Amino acid sequence: MTNASRIKIFYILMTITLLFVGFFQSWNVALTIFNLCLISSIMTLGINIQWGNAGIVNFGVMGFAALGGLANIIISMPPTQNAWEAGGEIIIVGLMIFTLAIIFSIILFKKSNLNKRIKYLISFAFIISAYFIMRHLVDTPIEKIEAIEPAKTGYLGGFNLPVLLSWPVGALLAAFSAFIIGKISLGLRSDYLAIATLGISEIIIYFLKNEDWLSRGVKNVNGLPRPVPYEIELQSKEWVLKVSNYLDTPITELSSIIVKLSYSLLFCAVLLIVLFLLEVAVKSPWGRMMRAIRDNEVSANAMGKNIKQRHLQVFIIGSAIVGLAGAMLTTLDGQFTPVSYQPLRYTFLIWIMVIVGGSGNNFGSIIGGFLIWFFWVQSEPLGLWFISQITAHISDTNIIKSHLLENAAHIRLMFMGMILLITLRFAPKGLIPEVKR
Amino acid sequence: MDFLNGITLIANYIIIPGLTYGSQLALGALGITIIYSVLRFSNFAHGEFMSFGAMSAILLSWLFISLGITLHPIPTAIMVLPIAIVLTISYCLIVDKFIFKFYRKQNSKSVINLIVSIGVMFFTGGLIRFIIGPGDRNFFDGERFILKARTFKNITGLNEGLTLKTTQGITIILSLLLVILLFWFLNKTKTGKSMRAYSDNKELALLSGINPEKVVLITWIITGTLACVAGTLYGLDKSYKPFTYLHLVLPIFSAAIVGGVGNPVGAIIGGFVIAFSELIITFAYKKIFFYFLPINLVPEGLSQILSTDYKIAISFLILVLVLLIKPTGIYKGKVI
């Protein structure tokens, strides 16, 4: 089977499945799944350009997605009254002092030709003292800011700009941190790189969880503004009433369907733009060079390609795409909850999507994102159905049966593991393999 | 007197917890290091193997308690540990036979093996949650303390108490025994030596007639034992919750890398480095200053370097620092 026909078949099958859910479960459920499928696909595209085209193992998906979510707060929330007066500027000055100390140590390492030990000693002393100066400056303002109506605000707030702006800003934020992370860790061997990125993404999450002045930490930020109208507003519109009468659906359901559809349109537009740009990139000489580096670093180096720079470039681009998707996800949820960022759900699930869809093929990544997300959502009822089928002949009062039914939802982790293992064993190139060029 | 009080405080809040947590990390890191040096991949499923071991110990101890067989002062979970170890080893061997063996025969890249181990992690995690549920299980029974704070205060007449929980004592002693056994095995027995030869130079070892399947079998037996003991001890000390073991993988990896991946001594040192730095950096030094400094020099705040919320993040921070400064770790890697 050629790739083109594979793509057609899988896309048609996926559409039919979603329509099936729409007709038999409900359109609301189908659209919820569809929206998250779109976001997952964008994240998968970001990882695919890194892994499929450049062979970089990035296990930091979770961190970049969370940074995208943070952009939502910074851009769209109204600034908290009095928080800036309470010392917002001082916090920024403190952070700048610490950053300057780090930049100074980097310059020291690059430019000076002192003994290595002395360099370590100086930069260590410098960073430590900068840290304590920062803490001294920052501690009181942070306390003050967090004391401003802690139940409602207690953080700096944002700039009160349109929420759609937070998507590109999320991408930029992720790109910037990818630049730093890449500088630190891209020289490492692939499995060290995986562990390092995973560790750094955990540090990002810990930061967001505990720095209440920035993101309200575990108290979450609720009520983020939406780029689409609210259901209540829609219900009072005349045309919605007319459509509701025409289709014979209750207006509450219709309004939420309209909201979800408008999200879908926005997400589809983003997905198509990202896909178009990536396809152009992959087909260009740049893409060819990336694959050459992936397949044989030594010879690519001999041809005069700057491998470190190229790797850094692709790492930043991919992470920015993940950040974009993370920002979209937070906008869709309408709230930022740092606790919900789990490596299992973000990092590893996205990786399963990449592998199952077909590493190195953008269309494959999209189908991987759709398929795996669909299974992830639907395998809970599926697991329940499966267990109730095999225990059908056991009486309902049996302890083992009730225990099995209670834990049936966790079958989905086994399911995901099995899908990944089966793909790696029998179709290591994924559903839609990389195009041979 | 103040001096002794200060020392007791440090012992109680840093040395004993550090030794306990460090031993648990060291056992875990040893498992990862041995898999890495013999089978040549980073095993992300190790945390779930530990969880599997702890789960077996819990289920078995429930069984034995319901049968009325217990050794009172010692927790039942420790009594059933040998059977739990056998179960864990069997699970590791089954996983190896059906999954990892295929990729070993193909000589796959280590990245592919790593991704495979993530699949195993998902599957095992799901299996464990399916069997025992996602909830919190406290399976400690027997005597809670070896040394109570009040007894210590009465004996010594100090203000500060020193407590030694049974789990802490057991953890330290058992880890020590296991490590001694492991090093004896690797350095003195013929099988251990053949394992080291295999990890050092695979082709040369095969040429001199070492049976690769036997080496792999022994590797999984050692890994299974270490995983089961480490998992059970961690579960006994804190409490057993399946999802914590996923988060434990990273500190363990940090420990292995900090010490130098592939080096057992390094893994142990790395475990203690991680454990102690977590405690030292997040400890509130106010009371210590109170005992050691003249009263007018004692600072007002808690004198904490980082808040306790960042405890686990510290291990990642150390990992990043080590990767930056000395990627080979404290001991150079890849010598079993």
Instruction: For the record, give the distance between the C-alpha atoms at the N and C termini of chain A, rounded to a whole number.
Output: 17 Å
Order of helices and strands of chain A: HHHHHHHHHHHHHHHHHH
| Tally of domains of chain A | 2
Radius of gyration of chain A: 24 Å
Number of domains of chain B: 1
Structural class of chain B: mainly alpha
What is the overall shape of chain A? globular
Uncertain segments of chain B: none
In which range does the helix fraction of chain B lie? over 70%
Brief account:
Chain A is mainly α and 437 residues long. Helix content of chain A is 76%, strand content 0%.
Structure description:
The complex is a heterodimer of chains A (437) and B (336). Chain A is built from 18 helices and no strands. Chain A has 437 residues and is mostly helical. Chain A has two domains: 360 residues, no CATH class; 64 residues. In chain A, helix 15 runs parallel beside helix 18. The radius of gyration of chain A is 24 Å and the shape is globular. The two termini of chain A are 17 Å apart. The mean pLDDT of chain A is 89. By secondary structure, chain B is mainly α. Chains A and B meet through helix 7, helix 15, helix 17 and helix 18 of A and helix 5, helix 11 and helix 14 of B.
Task: Detail the topology: elements first, then pairings.
The complex is a heterodimer of chains A (437) and B (336).
Chain A: H1 3-24, H2 27-54, H3 61-76, H4 84-111, H5 116-147, H6 166-185, H7 190-210, H8 212-215, H9 231-235, H10 238-247, H11 251-283, H12 285-295, H13 297-302, H14 307-333, H15 344-357, H16 362-390, H17 399-406, H18 411-426
Helix pairs in contact in A: 1-2, 1-16, 2-11, 2-14, 2-15, 2-16, 3-6, 3-7, 3-14, 4-5, 6-14, 15-16, 15-18, 16-18
Chain B: H1 2-39, H2 46-67, H3 76-79, H4 81-105, H5 110-132, E1 145-147, H6 149-156, E2 164-165, H7 166-188, H8 190-200, H9 202-207, H10 212-237, H11 242-259, H12 264-282, H13 286-292, H14 311-325
Antiparallel strand pairs in B: 1-2
